[in-house]
Amino acid sequence: MLRRKNKRRYLAVMYDPNTSQTQVKGDIQGRFMELFGSIAKELAFLRAYHSIQNGILILSCDLEYLERILFTIAMMEQPMTVVMMSGTVRKLRERLIQSEISLN
């Protein structure tokens, strides 16, 4: 049996710009662990990527844990919203830039 790479999804999460991205990522990971446990947290492969937009955090997760991540973000104490989702981080960044241009 061949071992293949798991599919990932990339989420653009809008949060309060007064808090840091590392704080928001830590809060999401902590809440996820409260809801689903530490083993699920490790298997979800949560990663954060830099975003040039202020108030946007790019998170990646394993495709199998996408619904749990979305549920976790909805259950956060601080108001957060998933703005966009994509299969690649490059395409997500391009779409974020395009939506920013169209809003201005």
- Stretches with pLDDT under 50, minimum 5 residues: none
Overall 3D shape? globular
Strand order of the largest sheet: 2-3-1-4
Class, according to the CATH hierarchy? Alpha Beta
Provide structural commentary.
With 104 residues, the protein is of the alpha+beta class. Strand 2 and strand 3 form a beta hairpin. Helix 1 packs across helix 2 and helix 1 crosses helix 3. It is globular, with a radius of gyration of 14 Å.
How are the secondary structure elements laid out?
Layout: E1 8-14, H1 21-36, H2 38-44, E2 47-49, E3 56-62, H3 66-74, E4 81-86, H4 89-103
Antiparallel strand pairs: 1-3, 1-4, 2-3
Descriptive keywords:
single chain; 104 residues; alpha+beta; Alpha-Beta Plaits; 4-stranded antiparallel sheet; 4 helices; globular
